[in-house]
Give the backbone structure.
Amino acid sequence: MNNDFSRNTKGKNIGIIGGGAAGLAAAVTIGRASDCGGFAYDSVCHLKLSVDLIEKNSEAGRKLLASGNGRCNISNESADDHKICESFFRKLGLIFTSEDEGRLYPYSKQAKNVRDVLIDTAVANGVNMVTDTDISGIELIDIPQADGDSSSGPDVAKFDVPQADGNSRSEPDVAKFDIPQSDRESSPESYTSKFNVSKLNSMNCHNDLSDRHQKFLLKTSDGREFIYDKLIIATGGKAGIQYGSSGLGLRFARNMGLAYTPVLPALVPMIYGDNEAYDLRRLKGVRSEVRLALCVDGKEQISESGEIQFTDYGISGICVFNLSRHMRNVRKNDGKMEGCSVIIDFFPDINYHFPA
């Protein structure tokens, strides 16, 4: 692990922002194409591929280490694509074991083994791991070919993170798109209105412009700049901020004009309300097999069964997580959840009605 970027003057440079599960999987996939003198080799274009995986933490895969309570629940046998996931990891030498309800774990039941096999495979196939490096801005550079007119210099579309004082540097001939503050929510249309759309479209990477060559210029928070032919943003969402997730990649992608879906909490524990009739905090540490029912205005909407754990802030457990993903569907028009409640049935196998 280091914070030095690779140099490749005879082929393609690929940057991957984010050293989590997605970023590591992308690095492994590209690197396993083959290995050629320290660089992966693209058999289609016959060019050497220099691959940098850029991670702002001191090591990649920190969130992986915490997943599944440190055991890394990789997939589930009931998931549609679990065989694809299994095949990917089995080719890396990972052995699986399954538990209740088809949950798949590494045989060692240690998330560290999953993280290590991804990193080791990527490095063995020429991927350069760049750690302790925070990306502060991305610029899409539209460079004319050698026989074109480059007297005016390259056109640049900037996607910067605002400085602490709210100002960003200005440069001539630049289409500039500032990243909104993390706590600010706006519609895609409001962002589009800030764009120089004609300039962005003329520099779209998917356009076949024979007289132009486009690259991505990455800027780091410590003032370094590096250029890539292709860029993968794999920074994840906002969950697990203690592991480095901040949602920055989502804002980069959104302001680069990429399509995205609304980001909402999912698979989360539930927190006690302020007006609980009973002080459930006294049950901290207790585990129990229960049936949970999500109700709106007293009417049951959906239920889940399984083990829950009481904590000092609420309830947790797989069945709680499964139920939580449905809560966004019962929000009212104003986004609030008044009238929503969760009923805990400690005796799900016993049919009993309390007398009126």
Q: What stands out?
A: Helices lie at 21-31, 62-66, 82-90, 111-124, 188-192, 197-202, 248-255, 318-324. Confidence is low (pLDDT under 50) at residues 148-156, 158-212. Residues 167 and 319 are 46 Å apart (CA to CA). The chain has three domains: 11-130, 135-255, 270-345.
